[in-house]
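We emphasize that the prediction below concerns an isolated chain of 382 residues; any contacts that depend on oligomerization or on bound cofactors are therefore not represented. The input was used exactly as deposited, without trimming of termini.
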Amino acid sequence: MSAPEPSAQPLSATERERYSRHLLLPEVGEDGQIKLRDAAVLCVGSGGLGAPLLLYLAAAGVGRIGIVDADVVEESNLQRQVIHSTEWLGCSKARSACARIKALNPGCQVDVHETMLTIDNAEALIAGYDVVCDGTDNFPSRYLINDACVLGGKPLVYGSVQRFDGQASVFNLTKASPNYRDLLPEPPPPGAVPSCSAAGVMGVMPGLIGMIQATEAIKVITGIGSPLDGRLLVVDALSMRFRELRLQRDLSRAPITELIDYGQVCADRPVSVASISVVELKSMLDGDAGDLVLVDVRNPPEAEVCSIPGARLIPLASIESGEAIGQLRELAAGARLYVHCKAGGRSARAVALLAEQGIEAINVAGGIDAWADQVDPTMARY
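Result of the prediction step, given as a token string:
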């Protein structure tokens, strides 16, 4: 995308005062500020990444911002989703974000789309905007946003976070630019990359990456600097190190010609493992469970919040590294080994890894979330 030509409508006196610090920058100036005012940016998600992204785009003077989000504000969001507040608990995230933006900059037009982005609405929603920003936290959404942007010829400002790490890039800026599929041609198996709700995230990480996304969106709109086109910025907050990786288009990759069922694509990749339900597990635990060993592959902080009585905590990372294989081999000797996690993804991966070592185990479908829903509604949730 080349920066749009500024409109003939000059800045008002109020706009000159509000954006005076931008006008002092020769790289931005009045022409750049008018480009921002005339631009339309769509942000998919108003959570951790979307919160700082939306605030800084509005503060910078982007004239029209679209928010796509079907979720409501929850207590656990407030640790990092700084655009929301306690008074909006249980209410629409999109409307909460809109109210905060209007309080910050009444001159910004906000389009509220209280819906999920789907293959049925993605192309139509994206068509009305100049730049798209990905503030989502799951692979089906990322592939859908990417492919819709490719089909619509829209630049995509990408960001992702987990624990203390983050990534940012700009995809599809020109016809020669890489897109998300050049970074990750296929989604990883479910459970291989746990969600923030399973692995956790330091509250400031989405803020850091979201502000980088806002910076890149402003650069793309105004045409200044060198956007992260063909570059992936990788951040490790624990060591506070920034690395840059080069990205190139894979010319051998099949072109994107249509949107597909991304949920099905990502769901089709799990390793096939034997599973039981939490209700079946409860029945066995209540009966003669003398030879039953239940292994919890979550991380220790998760187990501190809640746990299934009698479960042995052996984190997935220790299975992946091989450190816990000997212990699990001993536990499985003469016993029935069952494995659970938060929602079933990590435990399925653990069962598959154990099978590679000749250790038979069975996955507990739905994990401790399903246990809290179907067996013990009083259990603490996270």
